Amino acid sequence: MIADDQAMVRTGFGMILGAQPDMEVVGEAADGVEAVAEARRLKPDVALMDIRMPRMDGLQALRLLAGPDVPDPVKVVVVTTFDLDEYVHQALLGGAAGFLLKDSGPALLIEAVRAAASGDALVSPSITVRLLRHLAAPAPSGGDGGLSPRELEVVRLTARGQTNAEIAGELFISVGTVKTHLGSIHTKLGTRNRVEIAAWAWERRLVA
């Protein structure tokens, strides 16, 4: 499902995604209120959500669809022209399964949808490196979350936006082992996807 107040953006994204053999656009929304209603009605595998929309902004819609207290969260990828630190932070804490800039290009858009659908998450590399490290939130207490040294290494590489294959290559372990570590990390930290792991790491200044 695509939620954006600009018809041209909805049409453009729809053409890009609709051309993929494994994707189908099942619905559209022009504002946040409609986005929440349509997502609850259609139950899409993934919802693309703009931030600045009439009636209800995308961040509020995100919290209603994917927030921590939502029993059956929708996988929401935030796609916006606004790469402000505060937007990124709120989206991560609100349960986003990805954060993408509209000028990222078709390939990254498709990759972000596939990642979200598979339970993974993608954040624009420029955001991961340039913005998350500048989040001004104070480091919460709680130390290392009970993670092992190897799990902390996986967390740091995840927070830098690396894929499972890249993490495996850097740590000289298999992709399956990386996935096992990520499963353990999710359990210990109470996170649901890579984006929340990245937010946890950056807030605690675990990434230089």
TrEMBL record:
Residue ranges of domain HTH luxR-type in the record: 140-205
Residue intervals of the Response regulatory domain: 1-117
Keyword Transcription appears in the UniProt entry: yes
Swiss-Prot/TrEMBL keywords: DNA-binding, Phosphoprotein, Transcription, Transcription regulation
Database matches in InterPro entries: CheY-like_superfamily, NreC/VraR/RcsB-like_REC, Sig_transdc_resp-reg_C-effctor, Sig_transdc_resp-reg_receiver, Tscrpt_reg_LuxR_C, WalR-like
One Pfam family of this chain: GerE
PROSITE patterns tied to this protein: HTH_LUXR_1, HTH_LUXR_2, RESPONSE_REGULATORY
Residues annotated with 4-aspartylphosphate modification: D50
Record GO terms (molecular function): DNA binding
Name of the featured protein: DNA-binding response regulator
UniProt organism field: Actinoplanes couchii
